[in-house]
Write a structure and sequence with these properties.
The complex is a heterodimer of chains A (151) and B (420). Chain A has 151 residues and is an alpha+beta fold. Chain A has four helices and seven strands. Chain B has two domains: 7-17 and 39-243, Cathepsin D, subunit A, domain 1 (Beta Barrel); 279-419. The chains are: A alpha+beta (151), B mainly beta (420). The interface between A and B is large, with 51 and 74 residues.
């Protein structure tokens, strides 16, 4: 039950001491770089029909995707993995809307949450070891892009 | 309301005299069909489950509770039997709300904290949900399940809402936030605690032991100086069902059927062990092997496959996608068909075994309008995630639902699996 000194020294999680203010959803690609640094993740970039997808895999296995418009705005984010990523970081300026909606009783309780507001859609489900979620700003989604492709 | 309570007591007395297992009050559900045999609560391995409105201040629906006695390690007097601990086959570990500890027969300060091996450095934990998280200290207790008399010593439990430990907000060096909204009170959490008896032996597993997972385990040199930490396999919260000296390979949740209008309360059994006693044989139940990492199975419904399927007593409805079902206008997110609809999904385990899952969906607003009813087998709601299919507590009524734990042999099959 007791931890050895060796295990203590193997603690590898060290978040940045001071990070600049940023906003993933609604931000630009510089916020993606901030997310990569903060999540200590590996970045993979793909592009299709003008939409650029930055995929970050965290050290603990959560995969985060950030979808950017041709104009370099993050219009959607998605994730899946053992825990949710830091949603304050992912949702940026939209986090307050999420927090308010999550605070009131809703169907699905601890396991499911759906938020559908004019400026924000959030869909998240799961339990420890198996979370999946996505969020987007309807007004920023490019015209020829289907939200079904946010996954 | 008072009449309903009186009726409940009369039925309880009557059925106890008959030595019966589960019963339903206020719903006219009738006795379980012959195919369902509910084990009567008692030693050596059967605990009483109650589905009711929950602790004071909570208006729970479709939530299954047990009582758990917790004692300071080694003590037979510094103890408290805590009621309304939610039975959750979708999580792992025993968690108690600090606000449920009475402070008279048992105080928080009497429960030693789990250290990380260094004097003065203790572990805390954040339990993340989709709608917030619960945070608190990790402490050692002896537990007794008061009906079955199952016991385990020096069990690591999370004390959610321990007032000494403010919720990490990420402002301390090396600290990830335990994401708000906080669910650290009995009313916010909806129970006095949670008994996580799901398919996994530890709540986080090897990831937390090796690389660590941001926002889960923390090591603290003071109550306000907590940094992200790894937690060894044995330091993590263990599935309580694995800690008993016998009947430790899984659980069966056995709830009787309820009628179409629901029931005021339901009583059933939480059986420990699978294939270890005469009362917990797998019998004709079909085994659905789960994904060893996520605990998921596949559901096929109306021609579409849902790879993120699970059966979960901690969900208070069946949550799935069906655009043909009318949604409620007040209880947004629930289904409100004009009349009850019969539905069927096919569940498939990772080894290809298939099992039919039949359930019905009624008008949730009509069901919920009876405020004295707390148990419904026909509550359905939308699932925000396209790939997910969640059969919650409504699906448990009238079935004996087996959950076998990872790496354990249970009834001739290795866990993790669901079976019914």
């Amino acid at each position: 039950m007791k931890l050895t000194g060796a295990l203590l020294s193997s603690i590898v999680l060290t978040a940045a001491v001071a990070t600049p203010a940023f906003a993933a959803l609604g931000g630009d690609s510089t916020t993606v770089q901030a997310d990569v640094a903060r999540m200590k993740g590996a970045l993979r970039i793909t592009s299709s029909a003008g939409v650029t997808v930055h995929e970050i895999t965290t050290s603990y296995g959560t995969v985060v995707r950030e979808y950017l418009t041709p104009g370099d705005k993050v219009f959607a984010v998605s994730w899946h993995g053992p825990v949710n990523p830091d949603l304050r970081q992912m949702l940026g300026d939209h986090y307050t809307q999420y927090e308010q909606a999550a605070s009131v009783p809703h169907p699905g309780g601890h396991r499911h949450l759906a938020i559908e507001q004019p400026g924000l859609v959030v869909q998240v489900s799961g339990r420890v070891r198996a979370f999946v979620g996505r969020a987007w700003v309807p007004g920023l989604v490019p015209q020829n892009f289907s939200v079904n492709d946010i996954n | 309301m008072r009449k309903l309570i009186a009726l409940t007591l009369i039925q309880l007395t009557f059925l106890a005299a008959c030595g019966g297992g589960g019963y339903v009050s206020g719903g006219g559900g009738g006795p379980p069909p012959p195919s369902q045999n509910i084990a009567p609560p008692g030693p050596p391995n059967v605990e009483t489950i109650t589905v009711d409105s929950g602790p004071n201040g909570v208006s729970a629906v479709n939530t299954a509770y047990v009582s758990v006695q917790v004692c300071a390690p080694g003590s037979t007097t510094l103890c408290q039997t805590i009621d309304h601990i939610e039975v959750d086959t979708g999580s792992t570990g025993l968690r108690i709300l600090a606000g449920a500890i009475n402070g008279t027969t048992l105080s928080l300060s009497q429960l030693p904290q789990e250290t990380d091996g260094t004097a003065g450095t203790v572990l805390t934990e954040c339990l993340p949900f989709v709608d917030g998280s619960s945070y608190g200290s990790l402490r050692l207790v002896d537990i007794t399940l008061p009906v079955s008399m199952k016991t385990a010593s020096n069990v690591v439990v999370q004390v959610i809402g321990d007032p000494a430990y403010p919720v990490p907000d990420g402002s301390v060096t090396g600290q990830s936030a335990c994401p708000p909204p906080a669910e650290n009170t009995v009313t916010a959490f909806g129970a006095n605690g949670i008994l996580g008896v799901g398919p996994f032996a530890q709540d986080c597993g090897s990831l937390c032991a090796t690389t660590g997972v941001a926002g889960t385990y923390y090591s603290c040199t003071s109550t306000t100086t907590c940094a992200d930490s790894t937690a060894g396999i044995m330091q993590q919260l263990q599935n309580p069902a694995t800690l008993f000296t016998s009947d430790n390979n899984g659980v069966i949740v056995e709830l009787p059927p309820v009628g179409a209008a629901g029931a005021a309360t339901v009583t059933g059994s939480l059986v420990f062990g699978i294939g270890t006693q005469s009362n917990n044989a797998l019998g004709s139940a079909v085994v659905l092997q789960e994904d060893a990492f996520t605990g998921e199975i596949t559901a096929t419904y109306k021609g579409a496959a849902y790879p993120r399927g699970f059966i979960d007593s901690g969900s208070n409805g069946n949550f799935f996608t069906d655009s043909s079902l009318t949604q409620c206008t007040t209880d947004i997110g629930f289904y409100c068909p004009a009349s009850s609809v019969s539905e069927s999904a096919t569940l498939q385990g990772t080894t290809g075994t298939m099992l039919s899952a039949d359930f019905s969906v009624a008008n949730a607003e009509v069901l919920f309008s009876n405020l004295s009813y707390t148990a419904f087998n026909n509550v359905g709601g939308t699932n925000p995630t396209m790939q997910a299919f969640d059969l919650g507590l409504p699906f448990f009524f009238g079935r004996n639902m087996f959950t076998a734990i990872e790496n354990a042999s249970a009834g001739g099959y290795m866990g993790p699996y669901f079976a019914y």
